[in-house]
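Progress note, sequence design subtask.
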């Protein structure tokens, strides 16, 4: 059995570290460091600010994407009626009278309807006399 020798740090010779510090090094240290710093500080741009800008841009795009279809649905109702729908309505609803139709027409519509065929009475008589379905024309 070996007995451990007691070791006292205060009594033993100390080992030098090999590093030497110049005299008064720490007394002037802060002054030297401040002299080496640049006079103009660089501007620091936070990453959060860039991210914040992108978040606002994305939110604006989403809001526009959602509001444009809603706006179009409410504000694009046309006052023009589809011609085929109007003809079908008039044809299948017998409650519409000629007076009702006349009340709906304005001057522009009347000018579009009016046509001048310039057909002479003799031409009409010749056509009716040569047509075998004259009775159907007269009855209807």
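Output:
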């Amino acid at each position: 059995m070996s007995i451990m020798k007691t070791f006292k740090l205060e009594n033993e010779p100390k080992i030098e570290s090999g590093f030497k510090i110049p005299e008064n090094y720490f007394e002037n240290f802060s002054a030297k460091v401040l002299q080496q710093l640049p006079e103009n500080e660089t501007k620091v741009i936070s990453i959060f600010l860039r991210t914040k800008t992108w978040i606002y841009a994305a939110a604006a795009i989403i809001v526009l994407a959602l509001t444009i279809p809603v706006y179009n649905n409410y504000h694009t109702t046309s006052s023009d009626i589809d011609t085929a729908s109007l003809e079908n309505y008039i044809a299948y609803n017998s409650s519409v009278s000629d007076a009702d139709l006349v009340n709906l027409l304005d001057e522009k519509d009347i000018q579009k309807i009016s046509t001048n065929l310039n057909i002479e009475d003799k031409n009409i008589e010749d056509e009716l006399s040569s047509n075998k379905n004259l009775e159907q024309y007269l009855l209807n």
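The chain has seven helices and no strands. Work on this subtask will continue into the next period as scheduled.
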